[in-house]
Amino acid sequence: MLNPIPERQWDTRRAEKRRRQALGASIATGKVIPTGDIVAFLEAVTAPGDRVVLEGNNQKQADFLSRALADADPTRLHDLHMIIPSVSRVEHLDLFERGIARKLDFAYAGAQSVRISQFLADGLLEIGAIHTYIELYSRLYVDLTPHIVLTAGYKADRDGNLYTGPSTEDSPALVEAAAFRDGIVIAQVNEIVDDPADLPRVDIPGSWIDYVVQSDKPFFCEPLFTRDPRLIKPVHILMAMMAIRGIYERHDVQSLNHGIGFNTAAIELILPTYGEQLGLKGKICKYWTLNPHPTLIPAIESGWVESVHSFGSELGMEDYVAARPDVFFTGADGSMRSNRALCQLAGQYAVDLFIGSTLQIDGDGHSSTVTRGRLSGFGGAPNMGHNPGGRRHATPAWLDLIESDDPLARGRKLVVQMVETFQAGGKPTFVESMDAVQVAKDSGMPLAPVMI
Amino acid sequence: MLNPIPERQWDTRRAEKRRRQALGASIATGKVIPTGDIVAFLEAVTAPGDRVVLEGNNQKQADFLSRALADADPTRLHDLHMIIPSVSRVEHLDLFERGIARKLDFAYAGAQSVRISQFLADGLLEIGAIHTYIELYSRLYVDLTPHIVLTAGYKADRDGNLYTGPSTEDSPALVEAAAFRDGIVIAQVNEIVDDPADLPRVDIPGSWIDYVVQSDKPFFCEPLFTRDPRLIKPVHILMAMMAIRGIYERHDVQSLNHGIGFNTAAIELILPTYGEQLGLKGKICKYWTLNPHPTLIPAIESGWVESVHSFGSELGMEDYVAARPDVFFTGADGSMRSNRALCQLAGQYAVDLFIGSTLQIDGDGHSSTVTRGRLSGFGGAPNMGHNPGGRRHATPAWLDLIESDDPLARGRKLVVQMVETFQAGGKPTFVESMDAVQVAKDSGMPLAPVMI
Prior knowledge:
CATH superfamily of the largest domain in chain A: Glutaconate Coenzyme A-transferase
Helix content of chain A: 25-40%
Oligomer: homodimer
Strand content of chain A: 15-25%
Largest interface: A-B, 96 and 96 residues
Shape of chain A: globular
Mean pLDDT of chain A: 94
CATH topology of the largest domain in chain A: Glutaconate Coenzyme A-transferase
Number of domains of chain A: 2
Number of helices of chain A: 15
C-alpha cells in the first residue's frame, strides 16, 4: 500500500500569526496594549529575522514604537529586516548597533545618512536596496511582504479604528500589506477613545489594525516645509521670475509639483504680484501636488489655486488647511487627509511639471544630491522627476514639448532643475563626474545614486 | 469710506454638498437609499455638468447605479462629464445617446469600443482623454476631482461601512477622491446588514461613504481570465517553452506580471512539468502580480508560487483563493483583498518582467492592439509594460540587462511581447505602419494609441 502524500498546510502565515497573538494575549486587553508594556509585547509577537515595516516618513514618525523596538532584548529579537521609508531618527540606527536588526530597505535618510554609511563600512548593517518611496511600497506587495507593521495616528478606538489626522501619509499603503497577508499591525496613537463616536473620522478600518497603544507623548512630526521668507535672496526671486515667464507661461503649466527649497518658495510667493502683472492668474498653476507649504498662502488667498493634494501634512498649517476646504483635501470632520502613495502617483502621472533643486549636474543632465560619506537615498524625486513612458493622456504643456513630425512622437513631462552655477564656497554645480559615481563604488552599490 | 472687500467663501464645495444632501434627505433614510427610489435620488443629488465617476473596471461593475443614471430625466440631468475606468456596459453609452452625459474620460473600452467611435463621429460624445488606469486615478486628485462617485461592493451596514469582497478593485482609489473633497459617494451593495458585526470586514470606512443602496441584483462581474485549456495549441506550448528557457531562466526572473492570453496561460501551466525538468522550481517565478488565473493553479499546488497580489478577483476562484491564504492576499475574514491601484504600482515598479501579447508591431518595436473603427483604450498595459525611469532599486534580472560599462548605466525591466508572425487569416503581426496611426488621425486624437 502506498503512503498517502502529506497534505501541504496552506495557512502557515495565519497559524503563525495566531501563535504569536496568543503569546501577546496576556499583555494586551483585547486590541489595547498598555503603554508601559510595549517592549514586552513587541518581544512577544516579533520573531528573529522578521521583516518589520516601521513608519518613518518625511514628516510623521512612529517614534514611540521605534524607541520601544530599540529597547528590546537583542537575545530575543535579532536579525530583523527593517523596512523604513525614511530613516530619520537616532533609534532607527540604534536597532542595528544593538544587533536587533541586520538588514535595511529604505527610500530616504536625512540626518542619519552619515551614520548609515559608517555602519555599512563597519559591517553592522546590510542594505537590501535604496528605493523611491513608491517603489518601496510596491515591494511590500511582491517580495517584501511584512510580518510586522508599526504605524502611527492621532486617535484610535478600542476596536482599532484609526484616525491619522492630517498626517495620513503612507500609513494606508504600509498597513494594507500586512493586514491582508496575515502580518501583525500595531498602531501607536496619541489618544485611545472609549466611544468610537469620539473619532473625528476613520482613516484606516479597525479590522486592518491588530493592536493599538497610547504613546508616552504625541508622535514626532517634522515641520519640513516651513522656511523663513527673509532668507529668500534676490537671486531666488530672479530665478522664480525666469521660471514663471520662461517655462510656466510659455508651456501653459496648469498642474505641478514643487519640492522643498527657496527657489520654488519664491515662485509660490511672487505669483500674486509678478504672475498677476503678466495676466496669468487663472491660466497657470491651478492644480498642485505638494504639502501645505506656508509660502503658498498668498497664492491661495488671492485665488490662484484650485486644488492642492498632499503627501503629508505640515506642522502649524492644520488650522489654515481646515479653513480652506475648497482648496485642500479634507474629511467630513474638517481636517486634512493626505496620502503619500496617491500623491506620488499624481506627481508622476497627472502633472505637467516637476521642479526642484540639486547639488550636482553632469554633462548629460544627470543630477544628484548625493555627496561623499552620506547615503541619503532617493525619497520621491526620481519618481516624480522622470518622464513616465507609461503616460498616455495629453495636456497642452505635455504636447507642447513634441519637437518632431513623427506621428508616434510623444509629449513630455517638464522636469526642471533650478540651480546656481556656483554654490556657497565657490563649489561648482556643473561637474565632469558626480560624487554619486564614487559613492556607489565606495559603498558597493549596484548603480550610482542618480536622482534625475 | 472704502467699501470693505467681500470675504471669499472657502467652503463652497462643502456647502453645495450639504445643499444637495438636503434635496435627497426626503428620499433616503439616513445613509440608506430605497432600491426603488435610486433614479429620483440620483436626480436630486447630481447637477448638470458634474464630473461623475462610475465604477466600471476590468471585472466589477456598479451596474445597478449605471442603469439608474441612464434612466434619469435628461431635462434634469444633462452634460455630465463621465469618468469610467472601463467602459464596458451598454448603458455606459446610453448615457451619451440620451444626452445625460456629454464628455468621457476613460482608460479602457471592451465591447463598447466600436460604439464609442461611432458616437464620436456622430458628435454625441466628446473625449477628454484616454488613459491607463493609474493615470486616470491620479487625475482624480489633480484636475478631475469628482462631484459624484458611484461604486459597488458586496455588503454594507447602515453607517456605510463597505465590504467589497474579493473585488476591491479600484474602489478605494475612486472613493477617496470624493470622500475627501466634498464629493458625494454612493455605493450599491448586494446586501445591507443591520448589525455592523455581520460585515465580514471593512474595506472602506463608513465615514467615506455617504449613501448605500441595495441593488436589484448582485453586481455584474466578468470572468475575464478563465479560458478553456483545450484551446491552447502546440504553438502556444512551444512559445511558452521558449519564454521559460530563453528569458525566465536566462535572466533569473523572480517577480512578474502575466496578462490575459493563451501564450502566458501556457507558461503558467507548464511550470510544474517543463520548468521542473529544468530544475527551476524555487528559483524563478516566485512573486506574481496578476488576478487569480485558474491556469496558475497547477504551479501553486506544486509549490512554485510564494505570493500573488491581484488587481481584482476572478469569478469562480473565490473559494480556491480563500483556501490558499499563504499565497493570496486575504483579510481576517478569509476572503481576498484585491487593489488595482497598488497592483498597478507593483506591476510598474516591483517586478522583473511584464509579458503580454499584441496585434501589431512596427519596425521600432512599438506595438498596439488598436485596429480601425475601435477606440479600445489602454487599460493597464502601457503602465506595467514600460521601463520606468523613476526606478532605483536593483534586482538580478534588472541588472542583467545592462549592456555597457558606463557607471551611470541602468538596468531595465524585461518587457516581452509574445506573437506569431502571422495571425488568423494570414494577417501579418509585423507591419510598416500600425493601424493606430490612422485611427489617431481619423479620431482627432492628439497622439497615436501605442500600447508599448
